[in-house]
Design a protein that fits this description.
With 165 residues, this protein is of the alpha+beta class. It contains five helices and seven strands, in the order βαααβββαβαββ. The chain has one domain: 3-Layer(aba) Sandwich (Aminopeptidase), CATH 3.40.630. Helix 1 runs antiparallel to helix 2.
């Protein structure tokens, strides 16, 4: 059985560990190892995660099965003052992928979004990420493209995906 609950400040270290364990297999065929390492340090250092939690009102969720942490997601209600919930991050450990945990996390976020008067979920995903087909299977549609300069000569070349309800 999958259990999902909000992460505490102290558990942001676990979020970081999951990202570091997940990114090489997720992005290894898409990005250089140098870019992966740069992005992990940029996005998953503890100070950045703390600011996302405390200052940007992002909620981090942890997914468990039998007290084993399997993955996480983060989201923000009313993103950019609109009635949309932005899924900022969602990653499962490699051994936990394909077991319905990502879908369960998204369903939990959607439930919270609906309860708070939001009518859509949005997320960015690398255009070459295999997860694009997963998002499409669970009701997301491509709503645009976005290239984000993240510094050090790197960009994120993403699809913007949206699920309305």
């Amino acid at each position: 059985m999958i259990t999902i609950r909000p992460a505490t400040n102290a558990e942001l270290r676990i979020v970081r560990q999951i990202a570091y364990a997940t990114w090489p297999s997720t992005y290894g065929e898409i990005l250089s190892m140098a870019q992966i390492e740069y992005m992990l340090e940029l996005m998953y250092n503890l100070d950045t995660l703390q600011k996302q939690l405390e200052e940007k009102s992002q909620v981090f969720l942890l997914a468990f099965s039998s007290n084993e942490i399997l993955g996480f997601a983060s989201y923000e209600l009313n993103y950019k003052d609109a009635a949309s919930t932005k899924i900022h991050k969602i990653y499962m450990l490699p051994q936990a992928q394909g077991k319905g945990i990502g879908k369960a996390l998204i369903e939990a976020i959607e439930t919270t979004a609906r309860q708070n008067g939001n009518d859509a979920l949005i997320l960015n995903v690398n255009q070459f990420n295999k997860a694009v087909s997963f998002y499409e299977r669970i009701g997301f549609k491509k709503a645009g493209n976005e290239v984000i300069d993240i510094g050090n000569g790197y960009v994120m070349d993403d699809f913007i995906m949206q699920k309305t309800f």
